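ligand=2-deoxy-2-amino glucitol-6-phosphate
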Amino acid sequence: MCGIVGYVGFRDCTDVLMDALSKLEYRGYDSAGIAVFENDEIKVAKSKGRLADLAEKMKKEGKPAGHSGIGHTRWATHGEPSDINSHPHSGERVTIVHNGIIENYKALKEFLVKEGCCFKSDTDTEVVAQLLDYYYDGDPIATISCVTKELEGSYALGVIFADFPDTVFAIRRESPLIVGIGDKESFIASDVTAILRYTKNYYLLEHDEIAVLSRYSTSIYDLHYHKLNKELKTADWDISAAEKGGYEHFMLKEIFEQPEAVKTTITPRITDGLPDLRECGITMEKLASFKNIFVVACGTAMHAGVVGRYVIEKLARIPVNVEIASEFRYREPIVSEGDLVIIISQSGETADSLAALRLAKSLGAETLAIVNAKGSSIAREADMLIYTHAGPEIAVASTKAYMVQIAVMYLFAFELALAKGMTDEAECRRLTGLLLKTPDIIQDVLKNKKETQYIASGLISADSLLYIGRGLDYALSMEGSLKLKEISYIHSESYAAGELKHGTISLISDGTPVIAVATQSNLFDKTISNIKEVKARGAKVILVCRDSYVPDKDVADYKFGLPDDIEDLLMPMAAVVPLQLIAYYTSVLRGNDVDKPRNLAKSVTVE
Ligand code: AGP
């Protein structure tokens, strides 16, 4: 959840660390700090609040000057956000930054206190710093190796030793970490986007590998001090992908990147008009063999799974269960050989999703990961892998990742239906052709962003609202509602429109806003009846439906029209756009920090 960086080279280290941290702030933003070797002495600057608060503090108090150091941006787990609890944390000779959770920190702390150590903070991280210090015998690698054997939990650590100036050590287990290699400079970072300004070349650090970055060389070792020869990777994103590019917020930029993201994700997986997922390890024979499908994910990624369920069950006629990963992993799921478990994740590092993947594998199921972040843990551990090519998603509220996740679910469902003999090649080609047209459709819908601005202006003082729909429209409502609440802080619920009268309709009173999605022809009349029921009880209804439908006054107060020429099945790809934009503008108009909503972090690496 936190972001860590490290630098050794010829540039001003503080500037590099601050710049790199600014690209990682999406991972956590309740405090930040850096430690830099200044004339061979470690200087620490840290502060509660955003990176901007740390910059402000350094403006007043002076910034550390040097060419090597480590930095951190925090999402608090142990100890409230405060100056004291901010990273880096230090022992006498060791200073560290940490992303992850040390599960046995209490026992380790008790041991250290008995040994006479004094603690300043409430964090699990300080325990690691003190433990390193306790065991330090002048050999950093041996010490790191010995200490990590005592740690339970997850960590990516950046470590500096007072007597090894201009050297940064790093190690990881579970939490992600890359080592960037530039010309006469090197970096560590939780995510490659942090260093794209300086280099695109990097090593992916594996579990329990130790990186040593010094002025003259960068080496990677295993815990037994064997030097490793690792493959140098090249990022295929450039720096503009991690910058706002003229948009006011990353979220808006990412919403507008959706047509391109869908194109880049889908087009290379189509051969002769048919889905072709062989490069992802998925063959027709394999697809034909699956008996049950489970889709396991969290948040928005789970909502993409719900859309996938409707599409797969409709086309391929295989039962699909969609599960929240944090529930799946602890409820002893009935999953076995012959089943397919699909894990969807933008970051590829979500702790619950990763644990669910491991559980599914241990139960004998085949696993398929649909992941955006290259080289992430989920991507590496799944049996089959479909990368979504959305580029880096920086805003905490996921938009383009959701869009490409559902695009992949469609493609997968089409191929599965073919493999299962539930459709023929001609129909599969037709559907694939329609999917290829969705980037243009999304582009068209984006042209109507002004309308969503207007809708948002009517929502800003609402205390609570409802999203309703049936079938695929209900699946979409779930995502619309999550998007709104996470960035506008307005309470909202999504509800199956037909279920309202079984209790929830009592929430409707004069002026309660209801966003109703009605795009599915076979359910249209039923949904309209449900909408009339809420309208009759005073709801203010915003209807998202096809352009050609003209609602009467007893149905809707406002209509957002979608192009008429979209097939029902693919409607979610168009209909999600106004829902994303409504959430975005509501947040903007309420003066919220759209890209970094309170209490949240982009990459949830704790359970
Ligand atoms: C989406 O807007 C959220 N911030 C969140 O629900 C997210 O989708 C969830 O945490 C899963 O993340 P992942 O896709 O990286 O696994």
